[in-house]
Amino acid sequence: MAGRIRDEDITLVRERTSIADIISETVTLRSAGGGNLKGLCPFHDEKTPSFTVAPARNVYFCHGCGAGGDAIKFLMDAEHLSFVESVERLADRANIQLRYLEAGPAPVRPQQGQKQRLVAAHAAAAEFYAGQLGTAGARPAREFLAQRGFDRTAAQTYGCGFAPDAWDLLTKHLRQKGFTGQELVTAGLAREARSGSLIDRFRRRLLWPIKDLTGDVIGFGARKLFEDDDGPKYLNTPETPLYKKSHVLYGISQAKREIARQGRAVIVEGYTDVMACHLAGVPTAVATCGTAFGADHISVLRRLLMDTDAVAGEIIFTFDGDAAGQKAALRAFEDDQRFVGRTFIAISPDNMDPCELRLAKGDLAVRDLVARREPLVDFALRQVLNRYDLDTVDGRVEAMRRAAPLVAKLKDREKRPEYVRKLAGDLGMEIEPVQRAVLNAAAQQGTGAPRRGGDGGSTPPQRPTPVEPVVDSPQALVEREALKLALQVPVLAGPMFDALTPEAYLHPVHKVVRAAIDAAGGAAAGTTGAVWIERVRDACGDLAAVALVGELAVEPLRLDGDPDPRYVSITLARLEWGAVTSRIRDLKSKVQRVNPTANKDEYFALFGELLSLEQHARALREQAMGGL
């Protein structure tokens, strides 16, 4: 059985890992003030960013769905890794040699988890295929690339490779490296022949490695080269634990930074189109892999684009001008409503794709193609109108009926009146009947409410129930501030915070968090960062409290500048004053219920306690108001 990673090594991984760097690989983060960063949550669909990262403490929290934790937890949730796999992945990034308990005098790395094994197998396969591209048998593959304007440097940049004319050369190569036959089948690199033996999935084809957002190879796209190849023109990796075609975008690992920087993504149709765009100066191009562009692809891009009401990006589809391309463009318009940003279409002259355009007219023509984009709705409307004879009454009326739902679907309601006028002009009709048709279509679609940036579709995306903020009184606000100090600056809050017991907290969840801080050793024993926060989370034992710890770990303190001992003292004095005044109210009520004649001793005992508490409250109030 594999040994457990030493706790001190896990702590070191947490301390040396920049959570902002890890999360930035999949989510575009922007400054949110107070040293925090914000982006669209990768764990649920949202229009307004509620996913907060606190680099100073190496933790994150989503105020929308309650997801939170450190870099280890992020990888576990985002990439479906086990705890050990996440630690090992981060340790590799930070060049930390992990040690394992029960591993003997010469520490042995335990067997990698399945996902890491499959990633390693793909990396080895990509290296093998790239090496084969230089062999004599790969001449047709090299000629294919050259005919499309890609030299050896371009092939190396994109990791192009060749699957040799052999049944099991890759399989034997990978098995010699220690990968099992079952791992190769699970990875989609090999398949079982009729004889029961394993053979390579790809043979005699040009290959492109397909990478995920982090840059790991997770599959391959293979292009047919020989006429006697009975297979499809393009053959992709099948569905595997790594490769989900509905989520994968070719070129995303190379394009992600430019997509985030420019606020623009260009959607093309093939591997060579991505290469052509990147090399021509359009570095934001990506392509789907063997499937239509869909909702999961949109989710990936929206997080990179920071596609929100406040920061609307651009999504530019490039399609051939033929019938298939037009159909794809209209299908893309159906998905338009899932974006907040603006969607465009760019159609190349003479129905050329970006690769053909670059070859025929050069890099500038590819850049011009993107620059000449037009709103997708304009294109969609034009395609609908082109189907009808607008010189006849029947043609105009039927075209209006078909086009009105497109205008009604516009997510920016303020643009609808303009498009109503435009549609009426294109049809040669009065504006009133067109306006009625659009309003009727909007009513049927449920898109009539004048709200900017809404979903606009008949089936809005599901959103997890948000975490209710635990702020329902001035006292609760002070309690939150005190807990934030203990979580964010435990060294500073330390002894003063620990001196106040959980009884000073009135909100039940705050009490649990306060007790968890005690169980974790107290604030005085804490150190700023993810290690301390995770220790408190582990001690909570209550889901609401665990979520609250994540929330408070990233929530800014209620002051300008950095906290100091005076701010801690004032905050804790306010906290105690609130608890004491609550106790005073309870005592006053009790004193009023006690008969001073029949219960003399009880009455004077309560009265004496009340006087003492009121005196203490006055002192606390002076301290709490000290200079603020």
TrEMBL record:
A zinc finger (CHC2-type) spans 41-65. Monomer. Interacts with DnaB. Residues 263-349 form the Toprim domain. The lineage of its organism: Bacteria, Bacillati, Actinomycetota, Actinomycetes, Micromonosporales. It comes from Plantactinospora endophytica. InterPro entries: DNA_primase_core_N_sf, DNA_primase_DnaB-bd, DNA_primase_DnaG, DNA_primase_DnaG_DnaB-bd_dom, DNA_primase_Znf_CHC2, DnaG_bac, DNAG_N, DnaG_primase. Keywords: DNA replication, DNA-binding, DNA-directed RNA polymerase, Magnesium, Metal-binding, Nucleotidyltransferase, Primosome, Transcription, Transferase, Zinc, Zinc-finger. RNA polymerase that catalyzes the synthesis of short RNA molecules used as primers for DNA polymerase during DNA replication. This is DNA primase.
